[in-house]
């Protein structure tokens, strides 16, 4: 029994999807132009597909799980479970209009023509805002639509905004925030569910490790309590005596988000020789 995973054949999610599997200790032969391959050290079969097709394959059970943008899952309206956000492929689906247009609120979209590759999500957004507009579905190069007179506004994926800018557009509404997710079929067999749980366990260990750093520092013993008080840690920090009398080495784990604030307070409290190192896997 193997677990079948669908990932993007080529495009923005391909490399990070392979990288995630690698970080989970799963080696796959990623032959160019292959449609299918197998992991060498985990019962996993990998299908390489267009991202648009992945939700359908999962709904049908042709693939058990898949890595795809949340935006695609929502747009395709297939019956799949989102089991884990993956932290890459981050982007937003945004409305944009030509720079010269005076835009103050979503009401300015009333009766306008909006070009997008995401008609379902856009329709939903308009409805929620009580707006009626004409949606033009186009499959690519959405950003040129206003310039060629096809639409008054567009709704497209943005990450930095530079593509919009280069096409003389400005972003005016965020419709959806998206990232890559692991989606799963509703009707997994128990053996497949077990394999998925095993994979999820590994993914979570990798994700947690990425969000945390291992910190080592030297502290004068009379400041130890104050310094320990600043460190959240997994349980409590490890404290080891240094060869030099009156000093200790303190080891702990820090969340990346708290990182800079805590480092500053630690220095102020008298910590020295602070080292911060990445963690590869983390199981709590
Ligand atoms: P395919 O050939 O598989 O259909 P595609 O051209 O539809 O590929 P990509 O452009 O590779 O798709 O984007 C795949 C996913 O990457 C998007 O659905 C989205 O979730 C994510 N993504 C992240 N940043 C961006 C961005 N700036 N523009 C577009 N997609 C982005
Ligand atoms: Mg696509």
UniProtKB/TrEMBL annotation:
Co-factor requirement: Mg(2+)
Pathway: Amino-acid biosynthesis; L-histidine biosynthesis; L-histidine from 5-phospho-alpha-D-ribose 1-diphosphate: step 1/9
Any one GO molecular-function label of the UniProt entry: ATP phosphoribosyltransferase activity
Primary site of residence: cytoplasm
Domain ATP phosphoribosyltransferase catalytic: 50-204
First-tier enzyme category under EC: transferase
UniProt subcellular location: Cytoplasm
Gene Ontology CC entries for this record: cytoplasm
Inhibition and activation profile: Feedback inhibited by histidine.
Keyword Transcription: no
Catalytic activity, as annotated: 1-(5-phospho-beta-D-ribosyl)-ATP + diphosphate = 5-phospho-alpha-D-ribose 1-diphosphate + ATP
Keyword annotations of the record: Amino-acid biosynthesis, ATP-binding, Cytoplasm, Glycosyltransferase, Histidine biosynthesis, Magnesium, Metal-binding, Nucleotide-binding, Transferase
PANTHER family, sorted: ATP PHOSPHORIBOSYLTRANSFERASE, ATP PHOSPHORIBOSYLTRANSFERASE ATP-PRTASE
Function text: Catalyzes the condensation of ATP and 5-phosphoribose 1-diphosphate to form N'-(5'-phosphoribosyl)-ATP (PR-ATP). Has a crucial role in the pathway because the rate of histidine biosynthesis seems to be controlled primarily by regulation of HisG enzymatic activity.
Protein name in UniProt: ATP phosphoribosyltransferase
Organism: Chitinophaga ginsengisegetis
């Amino acid at each position: 029994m193997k677990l079948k995973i669908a990932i993007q054949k080529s495009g923005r999610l391909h490399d990070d999807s392979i990288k995630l599997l690698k970080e989970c200790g799963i080696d796959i032969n990623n032959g160019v132009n292959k449609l299918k391959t197998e992991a060498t050290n985990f019962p996993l079969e990998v299908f390489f597909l267009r991202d648009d097709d992945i939700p359908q394959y999962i709904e049908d059970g042709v693939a058990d799980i898949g890595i795809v943008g949340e935006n695609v899952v929502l747009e395709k309206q297939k019956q799949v479970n989102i089991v884990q956000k993956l932290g890459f492929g981050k982007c937003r689906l945004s409305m944009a209009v030509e720079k010269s247009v005076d835009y103050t609120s979503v009401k300015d979209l009333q009766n306008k023509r909006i070009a997008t590759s995401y008609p379902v999500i856009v329709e939903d957004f308009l409805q929620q805002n009580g707006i009626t507009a004409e949606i033009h579905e186009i499959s690519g190069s959405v950003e040129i639509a206003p310039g060629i007179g096809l639409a008054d506004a567009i709704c497209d994926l943005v990450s930095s905004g530079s593509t919009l800018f280069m096409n003389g557009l400005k972003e005016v509404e965020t419709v959806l925030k998206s990232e890559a997710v692991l989606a799963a079929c509703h009707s997994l067999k128990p053996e497949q569910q077990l394999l998925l749980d095993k994979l999820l366990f590994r993914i979570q260990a990798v994700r947690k490790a990425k969000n945390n750093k291992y910190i080592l520092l030297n502290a004068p013993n009379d400041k130890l309590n104050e310094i320990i008080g600043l460190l959240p840690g997994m349980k409590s920090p490890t404290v080891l005596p240094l060869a030099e009398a009156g000093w200790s080495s303190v080891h702990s784990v820090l969340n990346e988000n708290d990182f800079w604030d805590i480092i500053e307070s630690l220095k102020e409290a008298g910590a020295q020789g602070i080292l911060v190192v990445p963690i590869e896997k983390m199981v709590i």
